Amino acid sequence: MRNGVPPDSVRTDRPARAGRRTLSRDDWARAALEAMRESGLGAIAVEPLAERLGTTKGSFYWHFKDRDALIHAALELWVEESDAMMAAAARITDPAERGRWLTEFAFTGPQGADISTTLLVHSTHPVVGPFLERVTEQRIAWGAALNEELGLAPEAARQHALAAWMVAVGIALVRRGAPQLLPQGDESDAFKRYIIELLRPRP
Known about the structure:
Blueprint: H1 25-39, H2 46-53, H3 57-63, H4 67-90, H5 95-108, H6 116-120, H7 128-149, H8 154-177, H9 185-199
């Protein structure tokens, strides 16, 4: 079991073919995650990914029994990336600075680095749903703990964390779908300061 979600049974004993690097399960999962970042869940399809990786569908079936198993593996990588981001933030000892860092990341982190916005529209998918719920709850709980450090009572801290998460999702949606709406240059810096002030807990 990994990340609390039972894995699918897979074959990992594919023999190497002369003159061609044997693709691993991780190679396929990373390609699927990248495709999801670029074009959404529908981009996870065996033939296009095989072409992207320079291999055949046979390689896929050595590692995964079906498309859902590949989605599962890709989302495991997403959880690892999310955990790494939160661990990086946790190394910032001052809670106010930690909150500013996360707001800055929402504006300037790699485009498509977080796929929460893509996954939200597929929240009822049997594979996507548990991962999305798990990561979202972890982030809101993490934000609530930060807000308690800044002096909010537990109930208010969670409400504020939920509001901050919703703002972050909105920023990600605009960055992906209508980036021209975001302020540029000095106006961008002023807008980020406004968002930081808006999200600052007030005990």
